[in-house]
Amino acid sequence: MHEPIRVLHVDDQADFADLTATALEREDDRLSVEAVTSADEVLERLTDGVDCVVSDYDMPGRNGIEVLEAVRERAPDLPFILFTGKGSEEVASDAISAGVTDYLEKEGGLSQYTVLANRIRNAVDQYRSKRALEGSQRRLSLFVEQSPLGVVEWDEEFRIVSLNDAAEEILGYAESEVRGDSWERIVSGADTDAVGEVVDELLEDRGGYRSVNRNVRADGEVIVCEWYNRAVTVGDGDDGDVVAIFSQFQEITDRIERERRLERSTARLEALFQNSPDMINVHDTAGNILDPNPRLCERTGYDAAELTEMKVWDLDETVDPETARRVWAEMGVGDRRRLDGIYRCRDGSAFPVEIHLQRLDPGGGERFVVISRDVSERMVRERELERYETIVETIDDVAMVVDPDRTVAYVNETGVHYAGAAADDIVGRSVVSLASEFVAEPGGADRFERTLDGAFDATPPVEGPERLELDVEAAVGRVVLEYQFSPVFEGSEVTAVVVTMRDITARTERERMLEATKERLDTVVSNVPVVLFALDADGIITLSEGQGLDALGWEPGEAVGASVFDLYADTPAVCESIERALDGEEVSATQRIEGRFLEAAYQPVFDDGPVTGVIGVAMDVTERRRREHDLQRQNERLEEFVGVVSHDLRTPLNVAEGHVELARDEAGSEHLDAAMRALDRMTALIDDLLRLAREGERVNEIESVSLAAVVEECWDTVETGGATLRVETDLSIRADRGRLQHLLSNLLQNSVEHSSTDGRPDADDGEGSGTPRGTGDAGDGVGVTITVGPLDGEGFYVADDGPGIPRDRRADVFESGYSTVSDGTGFGLAIVQEVVEAHGWSIRVTESAAGGARFEVTGVETA
């Protein structure tokens, strides 16, 4: 739609002015004519958006030339047409000199208005085009000056007209150095043809608006720039005139290099994704599986299209949707989680997996990468080796991408962990120098380099990755790594090698342990009277070895191939044990075979469910059984002897005691008192001998006992005189209560009896500050303080502040009959030793802090 044109027509004849307005508006509906009759009215209307002034010449006051001059003072470029009936060369000359736009003489008829309308349109179009051009030039100048990007103005031959400051800085030229030069001066020769096509397209309005090409700076440096080109035209459509050509550009050398590096990195990571021995998939926050790798498809039996139609919980039967969403929401970018799962296969089977989950932010929405590993074989192996101490470890692979120049292009987080260095310190380094730094075994770095060179020299197709095992001194310690070298091809050229490293330290150590175990078993089998055997599921003997076969009349391997049920049909106990083992039960039994006693252990062997056989070991214990039988008979005879001694000695002693008591009642005598003391001593000796004979037996009735409570009970039964007791422990121990009482009573009695009459009742024994408890009077001549306390969780002690035990006599105190007092039996501490050994404890005697005796009992189990 054409823009309307507002015309101001001045003529002193109002009728003619109105006629002219009507005729012009009829001639062109774009024209809107306002008629005025004086020059003053013209000047008043100029600010009302007038596009053209049409003026008569001969008017009162001011003529047309004077009106023109007045208009030019206010609007120098406004179209002004002198439309006059007084035409002459003089008037025309004056009008042109005054800056008239056009000059037209009045004529008769309406045709003159057609000419006038055409003159008005042309004048206004030219005026508007000029103003538009000036506006464009002003805007372009402002744009060129203020643009943060480089701007080049070209002429119609694509020669440089001007550069802004940014362009001078990017290209290194001052504007004056290149003004008038062709575009070829700043374009690299390699891109001349391509840029020439852009120039042609731009000039012919066929495109060329954007290009990326290499440019040459003033110092000769080649840079990459991104150009946006535009031809500025004035006029309508394709008929517009090109008045200027501008190019806006920026240097993108770094960005291009980053994009190229990103492309290479993406290719390498894609190769790692495709070649990983682990199953990998990427899913979103809704649980949709977006991108499964080939290993996941291969292991589960689904193709990629099927997996991308599934949710995470469709694949992993252990995942609860609500729980999963909560876990994902709690994870930040870069966060990792380790999980266990069970993947469903397309055929309905399932297998356990170890899962490593990490949240990513790739720029296209929240994503989670799931790296999972099938642990089925490992679990089967663990079950098979369960009896030989299986260690289960989660193994994460180190992944590294190596460029053809043998520098590291990428390393994953596990590699960073093993190297103990930041990724930036690893990427860009020579992988051979890294191998020399970390590989610990002699010649290992050279083997690594040769294997890597072989991977780079490979040609497709490659059957599988090269493997190598090396000892490595890593940040996590010395480990054994299994290396895999997988070349990445572009066509037939190797562009990178993906090196994965799996920590197989545990596996290698296990193999060493198994080898050592085998050697030890071979030694045992060769030197110990055992029988090592194995049976299949039908009871057929598959292994028969060991020195113990001699006693049974067999040679090693002689029974292999025979049925154990046939060989031992007359020994039902053996057949029954084997049948129980074949049913999956571990069986231990002592059985009589060929007149010999054997302790046998039968272990079922499983193969992912059913029992496939039995392995076992049997030891000939005939001699041990005979010794145990003899020992039992000896103990029975000893018990019988003790009973006889107890009866036969006590009876006459009791009779003698009775007669002495009667004699003392009838007539007291110091000789009778001495005889009575001798009888008491003989009774004490008999009691101690009997107790000593029995205390050496192994304890059976073990219970939780309060040490303090037992000490108090014993104290109440000991003749303490002026002695004082301090109990400084709340320890509870596992012991036979009765025998513990014998032990403590004898230790307490020992401290009381062996303390001098000038003891130190007021002295601190140095063993603690418990509450003292005493009986009797200190004047009785004892005055010793006895302390019972703990030994830092190892046991307890009994200490006194008496005269102590000389260092050279301490080894003798536990011997039967040893005593330093005239009325002692010499068996008290021997009984203590027997009780200690019966419990499996240890005892030693040392000096207390106060200089007295201190007995320490260790190896005591606390309750």
From TrEMBL:
Residues 6-121 form the Response regulatory domain. Residues 136-206, 265-327, 384-432, 517-568 form the PAS domain. The modification 4-aspartylphosphate is found at residue 56. It holds the Pfam family Response_reg. PROSITE patterns: HIS_KIN, PAC, PAS, RESPONSE_REGULATORY. Signal peptide: none annotated. GO terms for biological process: regulation of DNA-templated transcription. It catalyses: ATP + protein L-histidine = ADP + protein N-phospho-L-histidine. Its EC number is 2.7.13.3. Residues 750-785 are annotated as: Disordered. It is an enzyme of class 2 (transferase). Residues 583-633 form the PAC domain. InterPro entries: CheY-like_superfamily, HATPase_C_sf, HATPase_dom, His_kinase_dom, HisK_dim/P_dom, HisK_dim/P_sf, PAC, PAS. This is histidine kinase. Keywords: Kinase, Phosphoprotein, Transferase. Residues 644-858 form the Histidine kinase domain.
